């Protein structure tokens, strides 16, 4: 299979600080590729560079078979990019914004009409077509921005946290849309703070402090989960603060939805069936399989915790 | 080529929407030329009209009365009547009652017919040098003419000196400031609006988005400029219409030629705005820079108000860089003198060259990355 | 006891469009109240009215005992508001932003310094104080935003999508702080599109097209609608409301 992206040793300094410290990875053509990581890990810097809008300090990038540095002008015709804080023209209406971007891409009129109505439906912006974009709610603006990026059919699409502020219904529909773009053979590179979305990607890249911490398919990455995970029912989740030291033998405790999760070192251990006894207010605990969010915690929260402790 | 033109039109259409969505700015752009014309036309007028002239006649006589009524009849002056001799002839100037004072001796009537003639004194307010000297000339001329008629003598035939004033025979300043305002307003509007329009795109973050659409940098720029060319042309037309209807300024030369020259000038002005926008990061920076780069040099150095030939050398050098200098030569040539390409090719060539230079420079400097 | 927030038929129209439709609710002191809804449901509009920043078209409301139409000055000194859009000065240092906001609320001198110390310790902002605000990661900018909103010890805290775009670990820390504030008696009124963290709220309202379509504790909602998670409840409520409105 041919590659949409091949990246070797990408380095970028931002105002004296190292934003990317030598990143290498590959994305096969037609993949749905997810980038996750803590705030400030370098996701947006990476995407802005790949979208030809910023120069890296060093490193090699081959994008759609072209050299990023030399052929960025040609690449610009073949990619799309939705930056993290995309802004529209607030003084133009919803349809005017859409038409402007659509018209730049010389779409066939029937095709254009079809895509416009599809996108308006997905975004639930149909009743608000005549409203000026500046008067939309935050999430509606985000959805409109998304629509503007999805009007044409490039070979490669970069989406930097496209669903932030987007409600759950629209998020679900958005991922259905992404899958259908993928089925058309388009390569998608998406970053997201939602771990349930990360699970839907073919391949994930976990960035941390400008370095690749882990990558692989969600299943592969989960197979490397280092703890045994338990769910603990009963206590009010927030009553157990992350600032407290976890009980003996437990590495991590954090709330997840209506329950607590405890990550325990060293695999299965019979005595841990009554793990809940260490938590005030708890009444049951059971072992569970981790998901991406648990993995994120396992790999990143130790570091965060140590940061917080050095602060104290 | 065709696709490129289409994209330029798409971008131009979007820019046009921005303009009509902001009625306040649009109103300013359309009203500003009119307001400035009225300001220049009425307030900054150096034409002399009904200036207060006092005639000091210690002993009123037939001659002094003839003089007074003759002066009063001219449109330059209004003479409230003659006043008796005063101890302090400057008092009416200090109090602002008079702009000019004509002092006659007590024996005026008699001394007129004596050999050696009568001694008169004209005092004028010279705060505004050009108005002062014109008042002086007007009083002296009127006195001479009245007294000759009064004494019924012919002027001596030593020299027959006749002056002809060309192009603006009545010496009306409207003929002078209408071309000047064309130069100032076209430059300001074009440079200011384009520089703001492009920096706004950077400030809101939409520039990055435009850069990765099929729009090429040149097309982004062309699309941006398009609506402002239209707007500036409208303003030019407005100035000509108001100049004609209200200030009676007729264009002596070819209107079509004037339009072409103005478009070249607008192109140069837009390029200045463009260049500013490649440097400025925020809209207010762009505004200050564009104003600084256009307003001051145009008003002061282009020869609009102060003649270039009387500037010190280094300012003359700068004046010959300012595009408005050349445009002013061209519009004055067309509006006042009615001349055409044969006489104006030189400034036109320089103007066009400057435009191309600035445009090329700003395209090169236009950031294709963030 | 007096409620922290109490509204009756609060409505806001923009032209003929009704953004918030006869909103009636009551939030007690120290409660963590989750305010959910699809994009454009009217959450931000409602919050802006409660903060005295936007005049209602009709209806009444009291926040911290002050009338939202007539006593807006009283409201502003008693509440903290963290808007959906970042509202700090990106080119100022973290410390300058805090000082500025403290000053706006009338804190000065030693009192301001003490309070800034307490807050930056609570939010772990200490190592960042001298940095430029736009140079720190987004999650930390949001913490600073929160810090500025609680400097003056507000009785009620309005948080409009405080954790949008914040990573999972930082979001837990954020909610830790929210829990601490609530435990000390601050009323929290919060919106979010993360359905897992909404479980931490005491009660949750789901807004559909400006109207409250469901209001209960998380456990209550899950039982009523028969779903295992609030995410499913949300989808259910919103979709039911949409089908009824489209069949009308
Ligand atoms: N000034 C305004 N003029 C016209 N319509 C407005 C105005 N302000 C808000 N609206 C409309 O009111 C509706 C509700 O907006 P609001 O910002 O309250 O939504 P929200 O629930 O906060 O959504 P989100 O989850 O996207 O933040 C939207 O349809 C929006 O377009
Ligand atoms: Mg909102």
How is the secondary structure organized here?
The complex is a heterotrimer of chains A (312), B (370) and C (248).
Chain A: E1 3-14, E2 17-28, E3 32-37, H1 43-50, E4 58-63, E5 66-67, H2 72-75, E6 79-82, H3 94-104, H4 109-123, H5 138-149, E7 156-160, H6 168-183, E8 187-191, H7 195-198, E9 203-208, E10 211-216, H8 218-223, E11 228-233, E12 250-256, E13 259-264, E14 284-288, H9 292-311
Parallel strand pairs in A: 3-8, 3-9, 6-7, 7-8
Antiparallel strand pairs in A: 1-2, 1-4, 4-5, 9-10, 11-13, 11-14, 12-13
Helix pairs in contact in A: 3-5, 4-5
Chain B: H1 2-20, H2 23-43, E1 51-56, H3 62-73, E2 77-78, E3 82-83, H4 91-94, E4 100-103, H5 108-113, E5 121-124, H6 129-151, H7 174-204, H8 206-211, H9 217-245, H10 255-279, H11 283-301, H12 313-319, H13 323-337, H14 341-365
Parallel strand pairs in B: 1-2, 1-3, 1-4
Antiparallel strand pairs in B: 4-5
Chain C: E1 5-14, E2 17-27, E3 32-37, H1 43-50, E4 58-63, E5 66-67, H2 72-78, E6 79-82, H3 94-104, H4 109-122, H5 138-150, E7 156-160, H6 168-183, E8 187-191, H7 195-198, E9 203-208, E10 211-216, H8 218-225, H9 230-247
Parallel strand pairs in C: 3-8, 3-9, 6-7, 7-8
Antiparallel strand pairs in C: 1-2, 1-4, 4-5, 9-10
Bound molecules: adenosine-5'-triphosphate (ATP) and magnesium ion.
Please compute the radius of gyration of chain B using only Cα atoms: 28 Å
Q: What is the 3D shape of chain A?
A: globular
CATH level 1 class label of the largest domain in chain A: Alpha Beta
Query: What is the CATH homologous superfamily assignment of the largest domain in chain A?
Result: P-loop containing nucleotide triphosphate hydrolases
Bound molecules: adenosine-5'-triphosphate, magnesium ion
CATH architecture of the largest domain in chain A: 3-Layer(aba) Sandwich
Helix content of chain A: 25-40%
- The protein's oligomeric status is heterotrimer
Shape of chain B: elongated
Structure classification of chain A: alpha/beta
List SSEs of chain B in N-to-C order.
HHEHEEHEHEHHHHHHHHH
What's the number of structural domains of chain B? 2
Largest sheet of chain B: 5 strands, mixed
Q: What would the CATH topology of the largest domain in chain A be?
A: Rossmann fold
Tell me the domain tally of chain A.
2
């Amino acid at each position: 299979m041919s590659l949409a992206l091949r990246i070797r040793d990408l380095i970028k300094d931002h105002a004296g600080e190292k934003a990317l410290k030598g990143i290498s990875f590959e994305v096969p053509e037609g993949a749905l590729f997810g980038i996750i990581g803590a705030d400030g890990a370098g996701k947006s810097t990476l995407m802005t560079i790949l979208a030809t809008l910023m120069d890296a300090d060093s490193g090699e990038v081959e994008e759609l078979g072209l050299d990023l540095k030399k052929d960025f002008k040609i690449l610009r015709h073949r990619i799309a990019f939705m930056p993290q804080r995309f802004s529209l023209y607030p003084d133009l209406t919803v349809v005017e914004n859409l038409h402007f971007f659509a018209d730049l891409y010389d779409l066939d009129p029937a095709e254009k009409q079809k895509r416009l109505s599809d996108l308006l439906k997905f975004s639930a912006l149909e009743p608000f077509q005549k409203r000026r974009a500046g008067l939309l709610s935050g999430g509606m603006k985000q959805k409109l921005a998304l629509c503007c990026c999805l009007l044409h059919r490039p070979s490669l699409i970069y989406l930097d946290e496209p669903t932030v502020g987007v409600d759950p219904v629209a998020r679900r529909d958005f991922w259905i849309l992404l899958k259908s773009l993928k089925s058309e053979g388009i390569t998608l590179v998406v970053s997201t703070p939602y771990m349930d979305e990360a699970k839907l990607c073919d391949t994930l890249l976990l960035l941390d402090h400008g370095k690749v911490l882990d990558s692989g398919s969600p299943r592969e990455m989960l197979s490397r989960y280092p703890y045994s995970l338990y769910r603990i029912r009963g206590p009010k989740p927030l009553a157990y603060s992350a600032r407290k030291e976890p009980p003996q033998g437990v590495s991590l405790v954090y709330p997840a939805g209506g329950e607590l999760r405890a990550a325990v070192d060293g695999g299965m251990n019979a005595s841990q069936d009554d793990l809940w006894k260490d938590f005030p207010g708890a009444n049951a605990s059971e072992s569970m399989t981790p998901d991406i969010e648990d993995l994120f915690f396992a790999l990143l929260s130790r570091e965060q915790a140590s940061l917080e402790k050095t602060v104290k | 080529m065709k696709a490129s033109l289409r994209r330029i039109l798409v971008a131009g259409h979007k820019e046009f929407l921005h303009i009509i969505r902001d009625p306040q700015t649009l109103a300013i752009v359309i009203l500003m030329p009119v307001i400035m014309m009225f300001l220049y036309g009425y307030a900054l007028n150096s034409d002399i009209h009904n200036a207060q002239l006092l005639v000091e006649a210690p002993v009123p006589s037939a001659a002094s009365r003839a003089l007074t009524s003759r002066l009063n009849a001219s449109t330059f002056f209004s003479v409230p009547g003659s006043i008796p001799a005063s101890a302090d002839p400057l008092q009416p100037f200090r109090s602002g009652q008079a702009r000019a004072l004509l002092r006659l001796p007590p024996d005026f009537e008699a001394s007129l017919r004596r050999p050696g003639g009568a001694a008169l004194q004209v005092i004028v307010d010279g705060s505004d040098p050009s108005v002062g000297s014109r008042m002086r000339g007007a009083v002296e001329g009127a006195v001479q003419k009245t007294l000759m008629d009064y004494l019924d003598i012919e002027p001596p035939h030593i020299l027959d000196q006749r002056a002809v004033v060309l192009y603006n025979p009545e010496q009306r300043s409207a003929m002078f400031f209408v071309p000047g305002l064309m130069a100032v307003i076209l430059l300001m509007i074009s440079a200011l609006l384009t520089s703001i329009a492009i920096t706004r795109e950077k400030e809101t973050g939409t520039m990055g988005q435009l850069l990765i659409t099929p729009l090429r940098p040149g097309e982004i720029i062309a699309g941006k400029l398009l609506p402002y060319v239209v707007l500036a042309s409208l303003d030019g037309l407005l100035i000509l219409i108001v100049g004609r209807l209200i200030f009676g300024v007729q264009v002596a030369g070819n209107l079509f030629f004037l339009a072409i020259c103005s478009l070249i000038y607008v192109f140069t002005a837009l390029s200045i705005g463009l260049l500013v926008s490649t440097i400025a990061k925020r809209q207010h920076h762009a505004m200050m820079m564009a104003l600084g780069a256009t307003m001051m040099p145009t008003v002061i150095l282009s020869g609009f108000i102060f003649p270039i030939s009387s500037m010190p050398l280094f300012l003359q050098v700068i004046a010959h860089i300012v595009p408005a200098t050349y445009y002013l030569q061209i519009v004055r040539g067309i509006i006042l003198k009615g001349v055409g390409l044969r006489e104006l090719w030189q400034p036109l060539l320089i103007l066009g060259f400057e435009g191309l230079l600035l445009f090329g420079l700003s395209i090169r400097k236009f950031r294709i990355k963030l | 006891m007096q409620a922290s927030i109490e509204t009756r038929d609060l409505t806001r129209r923009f032209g003929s469009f009704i953004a918030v439709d006869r909103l009636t609710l009551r939030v007690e002191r120290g409660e963590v109240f989750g305010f959910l809804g699809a994009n454009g449901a009217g959450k931000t509009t409602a919050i802006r009215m409660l903060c005295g920043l936007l005049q209602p078209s009709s209806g009444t409301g009291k926040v911290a005992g002050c009338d939202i139409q007539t006593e807006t000055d009283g409201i502003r000194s008693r509440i903290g508001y963290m808007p959906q859009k970042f509202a700090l000065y990106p080119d100022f240092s973290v410390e300058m932003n805090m000082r500025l906001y403290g000053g706006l609320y009338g804190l000065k001198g030693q009192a301001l310094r003490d309070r800034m110390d307490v807050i930056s310790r609570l939010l772990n902002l200490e190592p960042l104080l001298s940095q430029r605000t736009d140079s720190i990661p987004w999650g930390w900018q949001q913490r600073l935003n929160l810090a500025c909103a609680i400097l003056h010890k507000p009785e009620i805290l309005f948080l409009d999508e405080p954790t949008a775009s914040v990573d999972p670990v930082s979001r837990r820390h954020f909610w830790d702080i929210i829990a601490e504030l609530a435990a000390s008696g601050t009323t929290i009124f919060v919106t979010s599109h993360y359905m897992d963290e909404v479980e931490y709220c005491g009660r949750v309202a789901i807004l559909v097209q400006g109207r409250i379509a469901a209001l209960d504790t998380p456990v209550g909602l899950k039982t009523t609608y028969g779903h295992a998670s609030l995410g499913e409840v949300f989808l259910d409520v919103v979709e039911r409301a949409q089908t009824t409105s489209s069949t009308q």
